[in-house]
Amino acid sequence: MELLSIFILLFLSIVLAAVEAFLIPGFGMAGIAALGCFIGANALAFTFYGTVAGFGLLGVSTLLFAGAGYWVFTSRSMDKIALKRNIDSTAASEAQLSIHPGDKGRALTRLALVGNAEIEGRIVEVKSADGFLDEGTPVVVTRVENAQIWVRRK
Predict the structure, then answer these.
(1) Which residues, other chains included, contact 146 with Cβ-Cβ below 8 Å and sequence gap of 6+?
(2) Pairing mode, strands 122-133 and 148-153
(3) What pLDDT digit, counting tens, does each position of 82-100 carry?
(4) Which of 72, 75, 90, 134 has its CA 20 to 30 A from that of 109?
């Protein structure tokens, strides 16, 4: 009965480690439970079968986990689920992408560091490089980075 409990705990630790690695990213409850099952199986081996069997199971189970991890991450089995495409899209609107440094406009809302402005006839979200600007203040674009438009008082 003890041997069956040890094998069940080791099997659960492998399953929970796989769930942690592939389904639930990060170190969460499945990872903690996998570690607990691994420690519990080895503790049962020490308790019921003595020191020699305990260290034997500890060595074998550690090598088994390390070997399985090495095999999974070096074999081509990860290629089937790995992300192979770079994300090169942006959430910027066409109006934001068409604004260039030096374009002029006016603030439509109070720019409390961020607000809306009309630049070259297009309404876009802008960030103020001069601090707070009141509504209707003439502005000029100083820089555009990653579709973020920085303006200052004209």
Answers:
(1) 90, 92
(2) parallel
(3) 677 777 666 777 777 788 8
(4) 90
